[in-house]
Structures are given as structure tokens and as C-alpha cells.
Amino acid sequence: MGSAAELAAAVLMMLGYPALMLAALVPSVPAFAAATAVTYLADHYLHRKGSYLINRLSKVRAGLSIRFLIRQLLLIMLLARLALSDDLIFYGATACFIAFYGLQAPHGALVTLIRNRRRMPVATRNIDLAARIRIPDAPPKRLLNRSAEKMLHLDLAAVVGILVSAAMDTALAGFIGIGVTLAVGSLYVLALMPYVRGKKVPPKAERVLDAVDDWLREYQPETVLYFSGSRDSAYQVNMWLETMEQLDSKPLIILRERVILANMAPTTVPVICVPGGVHLMNMELSSVRVALYAANVGKNIHMLRVPTMKHVFIGHGDSDKLASVNPFSKVYDEVWTAGRAGRDRYAIADVGVRDEDIVEVGRPQLAPIQNWQGVPDGRMPTVLYAPTWEGWDDNPGNTSILLAGENIVQRLVKADPPVRVLYKPHPFTGTRSAEAKAAHQRITALVAKATAERAADPGFTADTGAQAQARTELARIEARIAELAGKGGPKGDEAEATRDGLVDAAKHEEIARLRHEWNDVYWRSFPAWEHRVITGAEPRLYDCFNVSDAMVSDISSVVSDFIASGKPYAVTDSAELGVEEFKRQNTAVRAAVILSNDAAELGGLLDAVRDPSADPLAEDRGELKRYLLGPDEPTSIDQFNTAVANLAIKAETRNVGQESRAAAGAEAAEPEPEAEAEAAELADAIPVQATAAGDGDGVAAG
């Protein structure tokens, strides 16, 4: 459902049309004018908000054009009911609306033609196509953005003028409005015409594809990250961008959907979005030796068919979910997992992935997570509560928010000795379940109340001067990041973004440095004892890991990632399976403090934080970390690069072998000169046979 305001606007708009009919029948010009204003404003509001209700209206045959046409017809009926059917304004209004709709056809055709011609067969980032082909500037956004709505709303001048004429019994105002509507509509059509011909049209598909192939031959990519998916899955490719930037070989990212490109995070790696399967299969990728796949999707087949490269499934996170042992994975040459757990998972699942095809490479994305060195002297311990969301069903094991969340936070804020609480819920929390949303709000209120109580307690002091200075520094950093990143997003359309989509490496590095600096300053901008609710994109989850000394969470990838820190953690058995069964079903909790819904076991977690030497699970966490994520040395990125290099050698060996066999086969098929001479002599010795027309017995002549 849309927002309450959107729903109210839709209701007002739909009620406005019966009101228009009633006002026309009465007839009442003021009532008609009021209902007209309501329908115009409500329609404009829904379009400006991009409400899904607009599409729903189209599906019930109440689309944009129909709504405007009905309003215009009702205006004609109003004139007839006012006994103006023999007046000039009546004929002028009728002719105006017919002519106005006559302008819709060329306008719609031009807009469609411009958009189609500017949609190139590929879209790129960090590839210099401007040096190879000419890509003109995009038309001004005011011409193409919400173009149908803008064109139809040009009838407003005519409608207002005609209503004024009806009220004042003079045709002048009506004809002025009619003239304005038709003149502006015609100018709109004329303004679009230059963009369908001449130098304002991008090159044809063949030239664009040739330019991309020319760049590929020059660049010679060696390792490709291939990805296909929906808008919501963009995070799956984003999580590998930093790893691709750190590869020893030449990287390239190939996407299949334009929506993924639009939602991809900034990167310095060259990116090609190729929606067409035929275009991809004809692309110059002969230098690529390793292809990495982050998801198992049908479009992978377009790349898997290429035999000159080796294909690897790297996934988008290790967990005990069924997706981590998809039988489709056996189509790849290798499957890379973080640690031994991934290998064992495939062996237990018995889905056809051979053990010798599995390579353990660690998790390069976890490099920012720092190892725990204990709570620094003089600092209050920090506990992160990071529950997952309620999921798509009402399984009580999905999240601790509903049954345990308040108990967890209540015990943490009342802990003695005290601890600081960071509450960072999943971004989707409360989006499906009203109960989860209410629980989240109660937890947020609980944290706010505890923070206020601490602020009023003289035992908790703060360096207000240092914190004010930190907040000033935060504002400076944020302003600089906004300046570097640019506000309002990329200008122009996809073709223009392809032309200008070269990332400034120095700017990219400065933004990364500033974000790291921002994170450091953020934690100094408030007292070290202050509880916090963190719901935005910043600080990031891994930043929260690094400032925390322990974590409470649910079964999710958050737990697997936190294990990389070596810090104590607790996981809530919200479904009340029991400790042994809960650990049996979930590998990642085998070194965790298991909480029941009343969170009575939290004391064990806090004891481990305060006295690490007496932590009974410390050794288990170390073993589990190595089992799930592999060894600390060599680093994960080194393991990853080694795996890429080894597989590239296998691909090259295979290609050389194929070329050798092809060359040997060609030599064997080529006849020796002596053999050719003997064959010629033998051919001369054999008498030529002929049969006369109609002779079916094959008797030799002569």
C-alpha cells in the first residue's frame, strides 16, 4: 500500500470525477471549477510522489489520458447545459480538445523514438568510449521526464479560459486559453524534433559494440565478475567490488540488467552492462581466463558456454541456508568457499559438487573487521544488539525482536557494572509485521530513556568541548564528501552516463579516506557511555563491530561475519529449540552464548567481556572462526588472488592443449605430395563410365 497521503489523494481524485459530472448536470461553474482543481492537484501530487497507485489506476482503465479526456468531455457537457451549444466558445472548445489530442500522437512518438535511440546496446562505467565514438548530450530532463503528464497538463490554460468564459459570458478568455494550450503544445513537439536526427542521435548499435570490442582488445581483461539479478540483489555484486579492485590480474565486471548498474556502488573497476544475450556471446572476451559468479541465475549460461575461461561460483556469503549448497553449483569448474565449513556443507548435501573442485579462499570482505584485544583500560564495554528482521513469515525463529528484544535491551541497560548498548536493527525491521515495528519502537524508546537517565546521572561525565569539536569536524567531512560525490546523482541519461562514467581514482580514494575519517570522528562526537540507536547507512555494520566488545544477534550472516572479530557473542533461540538442537542446526552458534527469550543467560556474555581470561568459549570461538572463515594467514585477499592465478593457469593450459590438438589434426588431414601423385595416377587408370539417358543398367561405354 502507498502512504496515507497518497491513498487520500487517490480517493479525492476518483471522487472528483463524479463531482465534475454532477456540477456539469446542475449546471454550476463554481462547483465544476472546484472539482477540476481537486482532480488536477491530486493527479499532480500522485505523479510527483511516483505513487504505485498511478499504475493501479491504469490497470482498471482509469489511466492518465482517460482521466484528462473525461474531464474535457464533462467541460463540453457543462457548456451544453449552460445553453452555450450554439456559441462560438462551444465549437472552439470542441476543436481545441480534438486538435490537442492530435498533438499527443507526434509527441508520444517523438519521446519514444528519442528514448529508444538513446538506449545503447551496452552501458559502461570506467571505459573510455568517448575517444572511440561520439555520444551526444542527452535532451534536457524537462523535455522527457514525466513527458506524458506534462503534455496533458497543458490543457489547463484552455480549461481555465473556457470556465472563465462560461462564468462571464464572454468568449475572449476562452479563446486566449485555447490559443495558449495549442501554441505551447505545438512548441513542445517542435522542441523534441532536433533529438531524432543529425548529430544529436547516438551511433547505431553496431558501432557501439565495435567500440566496446576495440576497448576490450586494448585492455585485455583477465578476470571477470559476472552478475545478473533484480534491483534488490545489487548488494550481492557490491560486496565484491573492493575485492575486484584488489585483484592482481586485470578485472572486469559484466552485468546483465541496467537496474543493477543504476544501483551499483562506485568502483574503479571497468563495468559493462550487456542486457542482450547475443551481444554478450559475440563480445571480445578471448583474453579472459577466470569468470567469477556471485549468484546462481539462468543468465549465467550465456557466459558458462565459453570454454576458453574457467568458471567459479563465489556466492554472496557463507551460511547454513540451502542456497549455499545449490545443486546448480556443479556446473562450475570450481566452487570457492570461505573455510572448511563450506567444503563439509557440500559433502553432507551430496549435490554433485566434487571435493577436489572446492577451494577455500576465506572472506576478503571481512578484512575491515578488527581482531579483539579486550576492553581497553578505562573504557566502558560496548555491547551491540543487531537483530535480523521478521522475514516473510511468522516463524518465531526469524528474529528476537518480538519475543526477546525488550528483555535483552532491558538487561543490558541495567547491567552492573554498566555497559554501553548499540542497537542496530535490520533495515527491513517492521516493514512486514506491525508487531515487529511496534517492538522496535518500544526498544528504541527503552534505549532513549536509559540514555536520558545516564545523562542526568552525575556519575557519567562528558567532555562537551571535545564532542562539540568532533561534531564540527563531522559537518566538515560530510560537506566535503557531498562536494566530491556530487548532489542529485548523475546528470543526463544512460548514454551520457556511459560517455562520462570514468571514475576519478584520486577522488574515489579521497572519498574512501574521508569515510574512514568520518567513522573515527563519529564515535568521538558523543560520550563513550551513551547508548545509541543506529538505523542509517552510516556507521556501517562492520564499524559497529569494531567499536563493540560483544554482540547479541539472531541466526543470520551477521553472526558469521562477527565471528571474524573473535569477540564473545550471543544468539537468541527465539523458537525455543533447546541449546543442543539449536547448535546442531546452526554451525555459527556453536561457540555462542545461547539466549532464551527472557535473556537470563546474558550474564555469561558480560562476564566473558569483563574477564577474557575466564571466558569458557574463547578457544571454541577461535576454532569455529578457522572452520568457517579459514586461517588468518595468508590473508584472505592473498588466498583469493592465488586461487585466481592457479585457475588462470589451468585455463591457459587447457587452451594451449586445444590449439596443439587442432594443429596436429590439421597436419594429419593434409595429404603428402607422394600420396597425391599416386592418387592422380590411379584416377587416370580408371576408365570413365557414362550412362545414356534412360539406361538404367550402368553398362560402360567403350
Description:
This protein is α/β, with parallel strands linked by helices. The protein contains 28 helices and 14 strands. An eight-stranded mixed beta sheet has the order 1-4-3-2-5-6-7-8. Strands 11-10-9-12-13-14 form a six-stranded parallel beta sheet, with helices on both faces. Strand 7, helix 16 (340-349) and strand 8 form a beta-alpha-beta unit. Helix 17 (405-413) runs parallel beside helix 18 (434-456). The longest helix has 34 residues, at 636-669. Mean pLDDT is 89; it is low at 686-702.
User: What order do the strands of the largest sheet run in, or round the barrel if closed?
Assistant: 1-4-3-2-5-6-7-8
- Runs in which pLDDT lies below 50 for 5 or more consecutive residues are 686-702
Helix amount: 40-55%
Broad shape: globular
Count up the helices.
28
Strand content: 5-15%
Radius of gyration: 35 Å
Structural class: alpha/beta
Short description:
This protein is an alpha/beta fold and 702 residues long. The protein is built from 28 helices and 14 strands.
Offer a few descriptive terms.
702 residues, alpha/beta, 8-stranded mixed sheet, 14 strands, globular
Topology:
Elements: H1 4-25, H2 29-49, H3 52-59, H4 64-81, H5 88-118, E1 123-125, H6 141-144, H7 147-152, H8 156-168, H9 172-192, H10 205-219, E2 223-227, H11 234-238, H12 241-245, E3 251-255, H13 258-262, E4 271-273, H14 277-281, E5 290-293, H15 301-304, E6 310-313, E7 334-337, H16 340-349, E8 358-360, E9 382-386, H17 405-413, E10 420-423, H18 434-456, H19 464-485, H20 494-500, H21 505-522, E11 532-533, H22 541-547, E12 550-553, H23 557-562, E13 569-572, H24 579-585, E14 593-595, H25 602-610, H26 618-629, H27 636-669, H28 673-685
Parallel strand pairs: 2-3, 2-5, 3-4, 5-6, 6-7, 7-8, 9-10, 9-12, 10-11, 12-13, 13-14
Antiparallel strand pairs: 1-4
Helix pairs in contact: 1-2, 1-4, 4-5, 5-9, 8-9, 17-18, 19-21
